[in-house]
Amino acid sequence: MKKLLTLLLLISAVSLVGQRRIIKDDPIQRYSFEVMKYRDPVTGRIPANIRSREMEFASGIKAKGRTEEPSTIWTHRGPFNVGGRTRALAVSSVDENMILAGGVSGGIWRSTDQGSTWAKVSSTSDLLSVTCIAQDTRAGQTNTWYYGTGEWRGNSASGDGAPFRGDGIYKSTDNGLTWSALPFTVSATPQTFEFNSFDYNHEIIVNPSNGNVFVANYFGIQRSNNGGTSFSEVLTNSNGEWTDIVSSSAGVLFAAIDGTGIFKSTDSGDNWTEISLGAGIPFSDGDRVELAIAPSNEDILYLLAENGSGTILWKFDDSDDSWTDLSSNVPVNNPDNSEGFDSQGGYNLLVKVKTDDENFVVIGGTNLYRSTDGFATDTEISEIGGYVPNNPSFALYPTQHPDQHALIFLSNNKALSGNDGGLQITNDITDAVDDTSNGITGDEVDWIWLNNGYLTTQVYALSVGPGDQMMSGFQDNSTWLSTDPSSTSLWSDQSSGDGAYNAFNNNGTVRYVSAQNASIDRLTYTDADDETPNSFASIEPEIDGYITSLFITPFYLDLVDDEVMYLGGEINLFVNTQASTATNTTGWKSIPLGNSDVISEFGLSNSNILYCGTASGEVFKVQDASGATPMVTDITDASFPSGYISNIGVNPFDENELLVVFSNYEVPSIFHSDDGGMTWNDVGGNLEETPSGTGNGPSVRAARIIGDGFEYYVGTST
Q1: For residues 542, 36, 476 and 152, what is the CA-based torsion angle, rounded to 10 degrees?
Q2: CA-based Rg of the chain, rounded to a whole angstrom?
Q3: For the chain, which terminal residue's Cβ has fewer other Cβ atoms within 10 angstroms, N or C?
Q4: Are strands 213-217 and 311-317 parallel, antiparallel or unpaired?
Q5: Is the dihedral of CA 43, 44, 47, 49 positive or negative?
Q6: What 3-state DSSP class applies to 477?
Q7: Minimum mean pLDDT among 181-190, 543-552, 556-565, 624-633: which range?
Q8: What gap in Å lies between CA 304 and CA 242, rounded to an integer?
Q9: How far apart are CA 682 and CA 403, in angstroms?
C-alpha cells in the first residue's frame, strides 16, 4: 500500500538523471504559497511574531489522558548528504578547519575538520532562523562569536506582513560550542513588530580594533560597545528594510542604507560621513545593497545592488573619493536559460573580494560569477557556480547549487560557498581550465559537497515505500530517495525544482515525483531498492485547461488501487485511472466540484469515498471518483473559517469519520465529523486560546485518526 505523509515545513532544487526535466526555482511564488497557508484570513497577514507567542502558549498546555508515555527513541533519517538554504557562514581567523554555518531554519552547525563532519551547536529552544555570524578576531578574544536571526527575504516574511521573524542576537564565549541570547536584543513584547527591534538581522560584524559589535538590521545600524549587553542605533533606516556594514582591518566602517546612501566612519560609528554618489543614489527604498572591501587594498569598496530595474555594480576608491560604474559588465539575465545574473528581487545577492587580489571579485545571484579584472571589462568573467552555463534546461553546475548567499575566501585559493543547496568547498577558485570530461562546457571551478550530516533541508512532503524506502521533497533541493534506514546513508536525487508531493506504488517499482506547480513525473525501476530509473515520463494533465495556483500542489495514489491518482486543480478534481501508463493526455478526467478555490488537500479512505479540501475552507465528499458516475456532495459547514485546509484525517476503519484541520492562525483549527460530513463539531479544545480561535494558539498542520477511533493526533507548528 502506498503511504504518503505531508510534512509542514519548508524547502526545493535540482539534478538530472537520464532525460528527467530540470525545473527552475521560484522563491517569490514560494513566499506567496506560505503566506496563503498561515495568514489570518481577516487581515491577510501572519500575526506578528507568532512563533514566540505560540511557543509560550504551547508551554502551558498540559497533557491529558495518558499519565505515562512509552519510551520512544527517535533517530534521524537525514538526508545526510543534502543541505538546505544557508545564509550565515564564517571561518575561524585562527583555524581554517573550524567553520560555523547557519541554516535559515536549521540552526547553527560547527565543523572542526573543514566541513568533513558537522555537529549542531544550537539547542532546540534557540531560534533556528540564522542569517549572519561573526567572530571577534582580536588576540585573546577569538572564542567569542555572535549570530543574528530573522530572514527578511526568503521565507514568507517577504509576503504582505507575513513575519516569520527572528528575535535577537546570540553570543558564544566558548568558540561556538554553546550559545545564549543577548537579553537586550530579545523582544519583551513579541506580539508586535516594534521599532528598533532585532527581528530581521542582515549582517553582523565585530570591529577588529576594539571589539565593538555592529548589526545591520531592518531599522539601521546598531552598535554595542559592551559585548552585546546593550545596543544603540548609530545609523537609522527611516523607511526600514535593507542595510549592510563592512569593516577594514583597521576598523574603518562602511555602511549602506537602502534608499539613503553609503556612509563611512573612522571612529567606530561615533560619527558618519555620507559618501557622495555623484549623479544620485542608484538604489531606492526596498532595494537590497551589499558591500565588500578589498582586503589587499582597503581603499577599494565594491557595491552590488538590486534596484528594481536591474543589477548595479559600482567600485569606490577611498583614496580619491571616486566611483566607477561597472554595471554594464554584469552578465545580463536571460530568463529563457540559465545564463546571466539574477538576484531574484534581492533574494540571493553577494559580492566578495579575494584576500590577496583587489581585482578578483565574485558576485552571486542565482549563479556565481568571478572577474579577474574587477569587472572592468566583460571579457574576464567566468561563471563558476549555480546553473550550468547557457543551459535552457537549468541543469545544475556540477556539485554546486543555485541561489548564492555566502562566500568565504580561504588560504591557498580555497573558498567556501553557501547557497540553497547547503555548503560546498573548492580547492582552487582561480582554476581556469575547463574540464570537459563530464560533458559540460564552462565548469572551470571544481566544487566538493560539504553536506556531510549538515541537516538543514526544509521538507515539503515525504512518502514511504514497501520496506525501508523513503522519498522526500525539499525546498529548492528536488526530491531525494533513501533505501537505507541508517542515519548516515547517502540519499540519491530523483528529480528537480522544489521537491513536492511524491508517492510509491505498492511494490515500489513505480514512483511519482513532483515539483512546483504540479510538474509530475513517473519513474520506473527494476525493484523497490533501485535508485536509478529505467524510464521517465511527464504525466501532469494537459486536458480541460488544467491549472493550479498552488506552488506545492497535492497528489495522492488511491489507498486500494495504486493505478488511481488524485490531483488538486483550480476548479476541478483531476483523476487518472491508469497512473502507471498515463501520459499528459491519457488516463485523465476532471470532476467539477463546485469549489471556488484551488484544492489544497485530500482525505483518502479505504473505500470509494474521497474528501477534498480547498484553500478557502471548502470540503467536498466524492463517491466513486474513479468510476463512470462520481457523486459530489458539498459538506462545507457554516462554522468553517475561510481558511486553508492543510490536512484531512480519515478513520481507516470508518470512512465516515474524519478530522479537518486549518493551518491559518487566528481561526478555529480542528473540526470533527462522524457521519461523513453531515454534521461537524469544533474540537480545537485547549489548542485554541479562545473559543473563536483567535489568540496565540498554534498553526495546526496535520491530523490522523489511529485505529477505529482509538486515538486522535494533530501536528502543529509548536
Answers
A1: 150
A2: 26
A3: N
A4: unpaired
A5: negative
A6: coil
A7: 181-190
A8: 13
A9: 43
> What pLDDT shows up at residue 286?
86
> What is the three-class DSSP state of 494?
coil
Of 46-55, 111-120, 618-627, 645-654, minimum mean pLDDT range: 46-55
Distance CA 489, CA 466 (A): 18
DSSP states along 198-241: -SSEEEEEE-TTT--EEEEETTEEEEESSTTS--EEEEE-SS-S
Q: CB–CB of 306/317 below 8 Å?
A: no
User: Backbone phi, then psi, for 644, in 5-degree steps?
Assistant: -90, 115
Q: Give the closest residue to 8 by CA, choosing from 549, 550, 459.
A: 459
CA nearest 463: which of 562, 549, 546, 551? Answer: 562
What is the predicted pLDDT for the residue at 190?
40
What is the predicted pLDDT for the residue at 476? Answer: 87
CA distances from 192 to 112, 187, 232, 253, 445 (A): 39, 9, 20, 32, 46
| CB distance 575 to 589 below 8 Å | yes
Question: DSSP string covering 103-119, please?
Answer: ETTTEEEEESSTTSS-E
Please, what's the b/e burial string for 29-56 (b: 16 or more CB within 10 A of its CB; e: otherwise)?
ebbbbbbbbbbbbeeebbbbbbbbbbbe
Which residue type sits at 537?
A
| Mean of pLDDT values over 565-589 | 95
Evaluate whether 669 touches 661 at the Cβ level (below 8 Å). Answer: yes
User: Bigger pLDDT: 693 or 660?
Assistant: 660
Average pLDDT of the chain, as a whole number: 88
- Burial letters for 449-487: b for 16+ Cβ neighbours within 10 Å, e otherwise? bbbbbbbbbbbbbbbbbbeebbbbbbbbbbbbbbbbeee
CA distance 133 to 175: 12
Q: Is the pLDDT of residue 95 over 50?
A: yes
Q: Do residues 14 and 479 touch, judged by C-beta distance below 8 A?
A: no
Q: Outline where DSSP puts E strands in 32-116.
A: 86-91, 99-103, 107-111
Burial class (CB in 10 A: 0-12, 13-18, 19+), 633: middle
Confidence of residue 434 (pLDDT cuts 50, 70, 90): confident
Q: What is the C-alpha separation between 229 and 631, in angstroms, rounded?
A: 66
pTM: 0.87
Helices vs strands, H then E, count in the chain:
2, 51
Decide if pLDDT at 3 tops 50: no
| The predicted structure's pLDDT at residue 45 | 67
Where is 32: in which H helix or E strand?
helix 27-38
| Structure-block grid coordinates of residue 420 | 540553497
Could you read off the pLDDT of 28-54 as tens digits, one per residue? 566 566 666 666 777 776 676 566 667
Least confident of 7-21, 291-305, 510-524: 7-21
Out of 153-167, 359-373, 680-694, least confident range? 153-167
pLDDT at 20: 52
Instruction: Work out the burial of residue 539: count CB atoms within 10 Å of its CB; fewer than 13 is exposed, 13-18 middle, 19 or more buried.
Output: buried
How would you list the strands of the sheet with 201-206, edge to edge?
Answer: 201-206, 213-217, 220-224, 232-236
Q: Which residues pair with 406 in a beta bridge?
A: 418
pLDDT score for 234 = 97
402 prior amide bond cis, ω within 30: no
Identify the helix (H) or strand (E) that includes residue 37.
Answer: helix 27-38
CA distance 311 to 616: 38
Q: pLDDT confidence of 27, banded at 50, 70, 90? A: low
CB 104 within 8 A of CB 172: no
Q: Are 44 and 160 in contact (CB under 8 A)?
A: yes
Select the more confidently predicted residue: 313 or 595: 313
